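Recall from the previous lesson that a structure prediction takes nothing but the amino acid sequence as input. Here we apply that procedure to Fumarate reductase iron-sulfur subunit from Actinomyces howellii. The sequence below is the only information supplied.
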Amino acid sequence: MRVELEVWRQDGPRARGRFETHVVEDATAEMSLLELLDRLNDQIIAAGGEPVVFESDCREGVCGMCGFLVNGVPHGPADTTPACRQHLRAFPESGRLRLEPLRAGAFPVIRDLVVDRSALDEVIRAAGTVDVAAGTAPEADSVLQPRGQAERALDFAACIGCGACVAACPNGAAMLFAGAKLAHLSLMPQGRAERARRARGAARVLNEVFGPCSLYGECVPACPAGIPLEAVAVVNREVLRAGLLGRGRDN
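The prediction returns the following tokens.
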């Protein structure tokens, strides 16, 4: 199987980027996109060139490291599937792929297909944590929670932080990501004490770092974890709730 690749190359954050064309003659339909990049890098190194820089870790679809654009789509053509689980059999017979880094104002390019996604860390610092008493080990049954509510919280907690939702959004918004964090923790008993503080923190980072949400909904099919569009509404609901409570209260 012959695959022609247009790959974005950029030597550093301030360097001028460009596309390079390469051909992999011995690709197979079972290859994932990352395996295809591995094969390409074998060829480039054998020819004395610099390999394409890209991120990966688990290659099992749960770490969120491997995001990039494939023919203009975050991760690739299969909905709710990370790049490491996208296989060449999912592509049309054209045999031509265009690979480039996630495009978003909040994600500056570091090198080649690698971007700086630390803006998502700002959301986590502001809205993705709870304070607990360190050194304690309470009885597991001491904090009760209905099973359905716990399962719903876990559905939102499935977000892997890959940033595909931001790259898919025409405005570069991170509402789906932030909403997943706020929804998860607001549904857990341990997260209710600082619920209003997290909502205010999320709103601040979203306004300062990311673009506004216009409810295009393109973030949902790009999300490997299948986070529903409801997460966007959660952000607005939690911010409104925090405003009604007033700044003097955290819950």
